[in-house]
Amino acid sequence: MANGRYNLIPNKDFKIRTIIKSLETSPIRKIANTAIGKKDIIPLYFGETDIATPSFISQAMKDALDAGHTFYSANQGVPELVNIISKYSSSLHKKNIPPSRIMVTSAGMNALMMASEAIINPKDKVICITPVWPNFMRCIEIMGGEVIEIPLIYSDSDNTWQLNIAEINKHIKNVKAIYINSPNNPTGWMMDSQEQMAILELCRKNKIWIISDEVYERIVYDRNVAPSFLDISDENDLLLVVNSFSKSWAMTGWRLGWIILPENLLHIFEKLNEFNVASPSSPAQYAGITAITDGEDFIKTMINKLDDSRKLTINYLNNFSQVILPFPKAAFYAYFKVKNITDSEKFCFKTLTDTGVGLAPGTSFGKGGNSWIRICYAKSPDLLNQAFEKLKPALT
Ligand SMILES: Cc1ncc(COP(=O)(O)O)c(C=O)c1O
Fold first, then answer.
1. What pTM was estimated for this model as a whole?
2. What residue ranges of the chain have pLDDT lower than 50?
3. What is the CA radius of gyration of the chain?
4. Which of 166, 206, 268, 365 is deepest in the core (most CB within 10 A)?
């Protein structure tokens, strides 16, 4: 039972690349694998809302199928979608981002993987700002790169996270790229423009790539869109910005996203799309046009719901005596420290068994997560109330 699900031949040498053999199952997945199929579980471990894709987007996919959009698309993506992403991004970031800087991808994950394929040679050192979604680091490792984690610093005086610019400075000369995700999964941290400018200037000076994962740019509560590297950069910067339909339009299962790249690199990324997936699903791309064109009201309604869930979550967690919760500014996660634990994975397994609430261990997101837990609060207030009542004894 090599993966716990099927009877595989033990110890057979399939001559798989060493790095692939050594990829670890994420602690989140271990918790989920234990929970899935069990009765009365409250799953707060995965990063998605419980809101289904709105029907006007699903209808657009059905219409696309009926209209015969069942063939491969151009590697760059369906031209109407590329154009609409160009208009959308240009208007959000108040500058011209032409279609020639955009390629449609099979969601954010595929964009991150292709970014890594494009720039990382074996043994390249790469800075990752952590805590971060684990797949970030795995893309780098799959390409043979070496991750240098630079954790955000938790400042208890203002109860928030800060970039460790001094530490970034120390390593910047030896690295190929810096991977950064803001708004951040798991912390809910959101970079401000000054921090972005500091990183951009350092990277410009040292000719370092910035891979900026901005898939949560619309999951913000005090503005319309998060600060973006696109706001302050120009088209020749070594900057790749990853985005996705998954979070903003509740389309996680659709696998649709995009990457914004320097003007001269489109042909390289088109080749990568060709050799990875040829092109993302054509009918999904047509639905993407409708999502962007008609989806603003949906985003507003979803953000209002998420904000209610966020307030409820903050209220509960701040009242639990064992919990320290840095203020989650954006995205839909609460990442909190539990004072009396030193093994977050063990704590999550025990909590799952004792209460049925599925949490994500902090160790999933980089070093230093032993006392930390993430929950995804993008759930109904009713479900969250139930979960927190069950968690109360373990957290007070
Ligand atoms: C930080 C971050 N980036 C990228 C993704 C990828 O999302 P998708 O591949 O669904 O676009 C996720 C998903 O949870 C994420 O949290």
1. 0.95
2. 1-2
3. 21
4. 365
